[in-house]
Design goal:
The mean pLDDT is 93. The chain has a 7-stranded antiparallel beta sheet, with no helix packed on it. A hairpin with a 4-residue loop joins strand 2 and strand 3. It starts with 11 loop residues before the first helix and ends with a helix. Helix content is 20%, strand content 34%. It has 2 domains: 129 residues, Jelly Rolls, CATH 2.60.120; 143 residues, Jelly Rolls. The protein has 340 residues and is of the alpha+beta class. Bound molecules: fe (ii) ion (FE2) (2 copies). One fe (ii) ion binds next to strand 5. One fe (ii) ion binds next to loops.
């Protein structure tokens, strides 16, 4: 081989290069920092027996790579069809009351409750109240689709059957294969028996070093076993702000109530009730409450427990979570005071 050899554009390098650069260029142009509640087109589906539309991801104006956000509205007295999907979903109740039946178990909910409908379990929702019930569903459908595992099935009026039992061999020995079988069975069982519901009445917002009051709604520490989806509620005081920080995407902040703005990469994005701010990139960002009278209530969603943890391991020693200078010291003082 000679150093002067002409490169062949069909070589693996060029095939990959075109794809990677093409993807990034397209993504940078299409990504959006705000999803508008007013842009959601709720379409009544006779098959689903509910109105449904995407806030972010799906066919909305806001492309997503990892998580997405949808709105589902069920009319009073109505029960949706029974369905299941390969993605995990967490439903935050924006209004109304009802119940969700998951694999034969029922979970009653009302405003600001949260319900986890796990991947591959049959489920349906029922509105037991007198006003429309509105659910915000956050899912990891884009990630599941990226792996080529998209799957969605609907069986109409059939009740949600319990999860299928795991098929395991009768004879057991101590080989690597059997250990893998046992570990997988234990992990699946843990997921099946995990927590599914958080009642708003049980949630206490507590002062956080980031300048807001907050509480986890769905998280491993509360007994949930999701694919990594975690939800927290936080409240920014009137005229206040959350401290500046940065981390990789995707994080979605749904504005449950209030008006304010987020500064993402030095660009100001205004929001109000029903909108969502989206942090796609590893850039400094900060959320502000623009009202001098009312607190702003926000739900933040991301997949830190899986996707970002993997990124942290893959990128180490690059720090993937950074707070504004000085916050670390202030936090150490708080933790120190608690331990004293
Ligand atoms: Fe679902
Ligand atoms: Fe953030």
């Amino acid at each position: 081989m000679k150093g002067t050899e002409v490169f062949d554009p069909r070589s693996h390098y060029f095939v990959q290069r075109r794809r990677r650069f093409g993807f990034l260029e397209d993504w940078r142009q299409r990504r959006r920092a705000i999803a508008r509640g007013d842009d959601v087109r709720l379409e009544r589906s006779p098959a689903r027996r509910a109105a449904f539309g995407f806030l972010a991801g799906g066919d909305s104006k806001v492309p997503m790579r990892v998580i997405d956000a949808r709105i589902l509205e069920v009319a009073p007295g109505e029960t949706t069809s029974t369905h299941r999907h390969a993605y995990d979903a967490v439903c935050f109740v924006l209004g109304g009351k009802g119940q969700t039946e998951i694999a034969g178990e029922r979970y009653a909910w009302s405003k600001y409750d949260t319900v986890h409908t796990p991947a591959l379990s049959w489920h349906r929702h029922r509105n037991t109240g007198t006003e429309p019930a509105r659910l915000l569903a956050i899912t990891d459908a884009p990630l599941v689709s990226a792996f080529g595992l998209a799957r969605l099935e609907d069986i109409g009026d059939e009740p949600p059957a319990p999860d299928e039992p795991l098929h395991l061999p009768m004879a057991r020995s101590g080989t690597a294969y059997e250990r893998e079988l046992a570990a997988a069975a234990a992990s699946w069982q843990e997921r099946q028996q995990a927590r599914r519901h958080t009642a708003c009445a049980d949630v206490t917002l507590r002062a956080s070093p980031k300048g807001s009051r907050s509480a986890l709604l769905v998280d491993r520490s509360l007994g949930y076993r999701t694919t990594g989806i975690s939800l927290a509620m936080f409240e920014i005081r009137p005229g206040g702000a959350q401290s500046k920080h940065r981390h990789p995407g995707e994080a979605l902040l749904y504005i449950v109530d209030g008006e304010g703005y987020s500064v993402i990469d030095d660009v100001k994005h205004e929001w109000r009730t029903g909108d969502a701010a989206i942090v796609h990139q590893y850039v400094w960002h900060q959320h502000f409450n623009a009202s001098a009278e009312r607190p702003a209530t926000v739900i933040r969603m991301h997949m830190w427990e899986s996707v970002i943890e993997m990124m942290q391991a893959a990128m180490d020693p690059v720090p993937l979570y950074e707070d504004e200078p000085g916050l670390e010291e202030r936090m150490r003082e708080v933790v120190g005071a608690m331990e004293d």
